[in-house]
UniProtKB/TrEMBL annotation:
<keyword id="KW-0067">ATP-binding</keyword>
<dbReference type="GO" id="GO:0005886">
    <property type="term" value="C:plasma membrane"/>
</dbReference>
<dbReference type="InterPro" id="IPR051120">
    <property type="entry name" value="ABC_AA/LPS_Transport"/>
</dbReference>
<dbReference type="Pfam" id="PF00005">
    <property type="entry name" value="ABC_tran"/>
</dbReference>
<dbReference type="InterPro" id="IPR032823">
    <property type="entry name" value="BCA_ABC_TP_C"/>
</dbReference>
<keyword id="KW-0547">Nucleotide-binding</keyword>
<dbReference type="InterPro" id="IPR003439">
    <property type="entry name" value="ABC_transporter-like_ATP-bd"/>
</dbReference>
<dbReference type="GO" id="GO:0016887">
    <property type="term" value="F:ATP hydrolysis activity"/>
</dbReference>
<dbReference type="InterPro" id="IPR027417">
    <property type="entry name" value="P-loop_NTPase"/>
</dbReference>
<keyword id="KW-0813">Transport</keyword>
<dbReference type="Pfam" id="PF12399">
    <property type="entry name" value="BCA_ABC_TP_C"/>
</dbReference>
<feature type="domain" description="ABC transporter">
    <location>
        <begin position="16"/>
        <end position="264"/>
    </location>
</feature>
<dbReference type="GO" id="GO:0005524">
    <property type="term" value="F:ATP binding"/>
</dbReference>
<dbReference type="InterPro" id="IPR003593">
    <property type="entry name" value="AAA+_ATPase"/>
</dbReference>
<protein>
    <submittedName>
        <fullName>ABC transporter ATP-binding protein</fullName>
    </submittedName>
</protein>
């Protein structure tokens, strides 16, 4: 049993609340009146068949898209519109369905880019390698080296990420998101394209991030085994609408969920 499910632990506070969110692209309704919450410290899965609106929902949460209707409240602050940079500064980091890294740069430098929002001495001073900027950079490097140790990728710290196998690129992307020291980490299909061993490694890192750093995690995942093993609660979308919400066990038994997945290959 995941610690979160222990009945003696009182219900955790809400970190993020999605309320009646709708999103349309012209005539296409990507999301219709979706509400759910993410509690502090939990792993929350967002699942559903292809085109259900999962990525659109993550994009609303981190400010890439602005809901046509509804609102998102993060740490008690309700926002109709939020820019991705403001979301990142506020503590929301994400990874993408297709790895989005600087392919020619090393693992170390890619993860270092995750620290840019934390840098007080601006780019200009960093370029001049001005004293205080150098001292600050050393501090950021220590954080990045800790993340590299944590993710067990010391052996590839100097390798350009474009030369790495896909599974390791996904791990570096996780490292870059962790470098932001997020309160809420959004993972868009973190296991996509991975073999079984890579999936097991990634699952272990996701659980470790959640348990050791207390990071709240929302993840989109198609592999049901992974969803059932990792998540505390699951929200299910179909055609842009929420059709179920509950523990993995509850959701698995839900007739609407079973029907939504019948005949859908995942
Ligand atoms: N930028 C966009 N412009 C137009 N339509 C879009 C855009 N982004 C998403 N959509 C549409 O919104 C709907 C939801 O798409 P979304 O990518 O959020 O689904 P998903 O559940 O993440 O799918 P998948 O599992 O295939 O990644 C789809 O009909 C999609 O075609």
């Amino acid at each position: 049993m995941r610690p979160f499910e222990n009945p003696v632990i009182p219900q955790r506070e809400t970190l993020l609340a999605v309320e009646n969110v709708s999103l349309a692209f012209g005539g296409v309704k990507a999301l219709t009146d979706v509400s759910f919450d993410i509690r502090k410290g939990e792993i929350r899965a967002i699942i559903g068949p292809n085109g259900a609106g999962k990525t659109s929902m993550l994009n609303c949460i981190n400010g890439f898209y602005h809901p046509t209707h509804g609102s998102i409240t993060f740490k008690g602050e309700k926002r109709r519109r939020m820019r991705p940079s403001a979301a990142a500064r506020g503590g929301i980091a994400r990874t993408f369905q297709n790895v989005a890294l600087f392919k020619g740069m090393s693992t170390l430098d890619n993860i270092m880019t995750g620290r840019s929002l934390k840098m007080h001495k601006g780019f200009f001073w960093q370029m001049l390698r001005y004293g205080p900027a150098l001292k600050e950079e050393a501090g950021h490097r220590r954080v990045v080296e800790d993340i590299i140790d944590f993710l067990e990728i010391q052996h590839i710290r100097r390798t350009p990420v474009g030369k790495l196998p896909y599974g390791l690129q996904k791990r570096v992307e996780l490292g870059r998101a962790l470098a932001m020291e997020p309160e809420l980490l959004l993972l868009d299909e973190p296991m996509a394209g991975m073999n079984l061993e890579e999936k097991e490694d990634m699952s272990r890192f996701i659980l470790d991030v959640n348990q050791h750093f207390g990071t709240t995690i929302a993840l989109i995942e198609h592999d049901m085994g992974v969803v059932m093993d990792l998540s505390d609660r699951v929200v299910v979308l179909e055609y842009g609408r929420k059709i179920a919400d509950g523990t993995p066990q509850e959701v698995k038994r839900d007739e609407k969920v079973v029907a939504a997945y019948l005949g859908v290959a995942h």
